[in-house]
Fold this protein.
Amino acid sequence: MTFDTSSRPPALLTVLNGPRAGEELALEMEMTTIGRQGGSDLQLLGEGISRNHAVITREANGSYFFEDAGSRNGSFVNDLRVTGVHQLQDGDVIRVGVVALRFSSPAAEVDWTLSDTVTSNLAALFGRVSKAGSEGPALLVALSGAEAGKVHRLESPQATLGRDDTIDIQIQDAGISRRHAAINRVGETGYALDDLGSSNGTFVNQQRVEKPVLLRDGDMIQLGTMTVLRFVGISSPAALASGENGQERSHPPSRKPEATTTEIEERELEKELSLARKVQMAMVPPEGALFDTGAALFAGRVRSASFAAGDLWTHVETNSRLFLLVADVTGHGVGPAMITTVAKSCLDTVLLRAGEFSIEQVFDTMNRVILGISKQALVMTAFAVEIDPATQVLSFCSAGHIPQALVRRGEVTPLFTSQTSPLGQSLDSRFAVEKIPYQLDDWLVLYTDGLLEAESGDGAAYGHRRLHGFLRANHGLELLPLLDGIFTDVDAFSGKQGADDDVTVVVAKLKGRKRRQRRTTPVGY
């Protein structure tokens, strides 16, 4: 069987964790094998992976199918065990043993345009974005990465982008080259984007820039691994009022002639909010992924009460120690979601620059950044732990967050520090770190208050007492069943699936000196 690869690029598999985290494999062949043995097309090493574990087949029409190859521990797609042949969809997360893979399909239709409504929402939130008028310069609005929430005015004939100190628009993203790209003024109102020979490429609306590209209002520019920028072009006042700029969008929204203006706006808003959720969820570790390091075996899950979550969890391993963080912005929706995006970008920047860091340093930096952006309109509670398997010491700190749980042989110990302020409340906030010894196979359970505040039909809250009772009764479970069980128990208590607030839970089984150490990706997602 042959394929016309010239007209349809192959799908990609991205390794999300483990020693090969960040690597990509183009699924160009009719069959791609996955397993431990050396002859596999994608060789993966780790617990729970069989020699011949799974197979991905590619059909002539560009469809991809995933099948377990009789592995001992099974294969999972989006946390569901695969028992037959499963057709893969863009964004699916495949779990093979402890390794998670993301499937990206080139055939997926993604609308990368954002309407004026969403831009206005961002403007109201940050108080920074103003529409470019007929006489003003175009704008670059950072939607993710270390610069999230920042607006750049393109006033000079040329604006260079990259990591170098001499660059006009400096962006701290590990995937961005020192001199990455340039935007040149063309005539009175035009702007052209050109890649400057970057290592990882420059993309406009998901298309790689091979030669200068004339930018249009609403274009989405991707640089490196985490940075997405929206181009806001120069428009006439009449075009601003109508939401158009006289140029056809790269991906015009589909509209039925008979649809009312309200229906059209609602459909467009749904697309935009769906994109916002995809961007945000890409910044947290994938659901269903089981991470195995020298310090702990752990997994987590975010359940959003809205189209975008105000919750966040992440991890990083440095010098064999493991750093875990859960955080919760007041409320849920667009505002809190943007604050979590900024906080995550800030955290990644601290970790990339510092190498060695402390919980106090992380919280102090996040506190200043969140306060500078939200102006106390929104604050974030957070709980961070550092697990040191060499000394078997657990360091932890709370920024106004609820107590967390350490479970030892069925006994639950609440973890909390002296009263501290949420992040983003005051520049005078100080964060005290506590240290306690831990034992091998202790459980650490981190969560946000949405879990405890879930209500039953008669208005009773789930609360610490019921959570601790569940942990005492079920501490003998394996990690992923324990994580699933917590969500199942709160759903049974409330009588519904879902919640009125965002819910995040992270479960970790702690290791120590007697365990063989492994490494995962050096920075979080």
Summary: The CA atoms of residues 55 and 499 lie 37 Å apart. The first helix runs from residue 116 to 126. The longest strand covers residues 321-329. The chain has a mean pLDDT of 78.
